[in-house]
Amino acid sequence: MSGVKPRKAFITGGAGFIGSTVTAGLLEMGWQVSVFDNLSLGRKEFVEPHLDNPSFRFVEADLLDLERLKGEIEGHDVVFHLSANSDISYGTKYTDIDLKQGTVATYNVLEAMRLGGVGEIIFASSSAIYGETAVVPTPEECGPLFPISFYGASKMACEGLVSAFCHNYDYKAWIYRFGNIVGYNGTHGVIYDFINKLKKNPQELQVLGDGRQAKPYLYVKE
Q1: Percentage above 90 pLDDT, the chain
Q2: Would you give the distance in Å from CA 43 to the centre of its chain?
Q3: Residues 6+ apart with CB under 8 A from 156
Q4: Confidence of residue 4 (pLDDT cuts 50, 70, 90)
Q5: 23, 47 Cβ separation under 8 angstroms
Q6: DSSP 3-state assignment of 56?
Q7: How far apart are CA 24 and CA 19, in angstroms?
Q8: Which of 95, 217, 118 is CA-nearest to residue 173?
Q9: Sequential DSSP letters for 179-202
Q10: Full-prediction pTM beyond 0.85?
Q11: How many CA atoms lie within 13 A of 168 on its CB side?
């Protein structure tokens, strides 16, 4: 709409799988977008098409650098917090990675928002917080929650931090407990590995389990 000031979004993990899709979508809608990503899982090539766009800004930095984060987040209207260690198997080898890149990083985002006067956050949580629930399909209010991965435990802790900051500082928050996301710009995961195995050997289809397992997926652009 003519005369309406575009909203300014700060996207953590904006060069990642889901983040790069959100980045492109918001730019198409006329938003101003700042991407903050340490490129540990994200790739700069995923946002390269936007580098010449005056409405786009890329910051290569880590969320654990609170001072840098505070300076970069100020002046935005809303934060899309999509950054995390989404490689769950990696977290079983390095058991503090989800604590640092998930829980502590989320605290830093929320604290930087408080200090920078940003009052809205959209947080990417995960269905991993439910653990091995016997209720399938699993309703959102299912509980108590017993995550079985360090990733799921971190996401549950992050939801608690978001809730506490909302209560104490009147933030507005939207939390999405994503399931299994597939699509372009994926860099790891079961489907990613599955496709690569087929590319290497199209004559053999490796099936894990007894062949009767089922798993739902959501396309990243949805």
Answers
A1: 68
A2: 14
A3: 125, 129, 145, 147
A4: low
A5: yes
A6: strand
A7: 9
A8: 118
A9: --EESTT--SSHHHHHHHHHHH-T
A10: yes
A11: 10
- Which of 216, 207, 178 is closest to 84 using CA atoms? 178
**What is the C-alpha to C-alpha distance for residues 26 and 31, in angstroms, rounded to an integer?**
5
H runs (alpha helix) in the chain: 17-28, 66-73, 88-93, 97-98, 105-116, 150-169, 190-200
Indicate the SS3 state at residue 150. helix
- Residues 56, 48: contact at Cβ < 8 Å? no
- Any idea which residue has 């099936």 for tokens? 207
Q: Which residues contact 19 (CB under 8 A, 6 or more apart)?
A: 11, 12, 13, 35, 37, 42, 80, 82, 83
Backbone angles phi, psi at 172, to 5 degrees: -110, 135
The token duo for 50 is 């936007």
